[in-house]
Amino acid sequence: MWSQDALLSAWNFAAEAHAGQTVPGSERPYINHVGSVAMEVLHAIAQRTDVVDPDLAIQCALLHDVVEDTAVTVEEIRQRFGPGVGAGVAALTKDSALPDKAAKMSDSLARIKQQPHEVWMVKLADRITNLQPPPSYWNAAKIAAYRSEAQVIHDALAAACPILAPRLRTKIAGYPGL
Questions:
Q1: Residue 109 above 70 pLDDT?
Q2: Which pTM value belongs to this model?
Q3: 155 catalytic residue (yes or no)
Q4: Could you tell me the CA-to-CA distances from 33 to 62, 86, 141 in Å, in that order?
Q5: Domain residue spans in the chain?
Q6: Positive or negative CA dihedral for 28, 34, 37, 39?
Q7: Is residue 68 flagged as an active site residue?
Q8: Which of 35, 93, 154, 171 could tie 131 with a disulfide, CB 3.0–4.6 Å?
């Protein structure tokens, strides 16, 4: 199945890296988001017999935002968790040097698609988790754009997981503003 030690190591690293951060628009500690993504991935792995590297999926789920949202570098992830996890987290991290959100998403999806399906699963799970009710300060256009972006993710990565893809499709269909 997966290594409990690998899971705990990544969980503790993520908890320390995200210490003091909150989920945008809430008072919840950011680690709740990280845990939610990992739970989605764990649920999918538990229902499948064909996941080649569950440790890669779980570690990337737990670490998917540490480079984007903290001072942690991809090199630190590689050194601590190995080249596969480092490459997965790097692919899941948007390139801040790109000019706009669409370019960042396109680039990230292209890099994710070069990774094993376990990394694709993390992106699907991340967007499932993010499709909670939108913050009250989002307008209709922002909500519609976020839903459209979720559809782009689904279309690009659905082949990776017959458990997470329909779950994301359901979340998109139920997202406000339709």
A1: yes
A2: 0.96
A3: no
A4: 9, 20, 24
A5: 4-174
A6: negative
A7: yes
A8: 171
